[in-house]
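Hi all, long-time lurker, first post. I run a small reading group and we've been trying to get comfortable going from sequence to structure in the token notation. Rather than ask abstract questions, I figured I'd post a concrete chain and ask someone more experienced to write out its structure so we can walk through it together at our next meeting. Sequence below, copied exactly:
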Amino acid sequence: FRCHNVDLYMSAFNTYVKPVVEYCNYVWNPVLCRDIDVIENIQRSYTRRVYWKCGLSRISYADRLVYLDSLSLECSRIITCLTMFYKIYNKFVCCNVLSDFSLPAYMSNLRGHNNRLLIPFCRSSCRKEYFTFRFVRVWNNLPANIVSTNVTKTFTNNARSQE
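-- Answer (accepted) --
Happy to help. Here is the structure in token form:
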């Protein structure tokens, strides 16, 4: 492109690059910091080049994201995975990956929401990094007003504002 419009560049990124980077991320979502950084560098370098091309001052990646009103790819992946978890939990998606998880009776009167799930014991450290095991922890820590909604878009927007 030969323009100086930041919005046009970000629109192109959100249309052509981001869907490829985030495709099925609840399946392959990285755990290691080095893998997260490799993926994050895609957006980091793109926004740096956009700022350079548009003649804007050089600022940090976090400040660029605030100025562009965008989330990091890591936060975006977490929200996408939480939304998928929400859909599975509420049976909006036909999937039985949460069949091993249950709400224990002793947790019903403690702090937090009533939709918390008990994480079953597993011996394998590999299994602890599965989608369900990672996001049950996040799900259990969400506030009750976010979890109790019955509309997917509202859940996603509330989770995004929570980040």
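A couple of things your group might point at:
DSSP finds eight helices and no strands in the chain.
Residues 82 and 135 are 7 Å apart (CA to CA).
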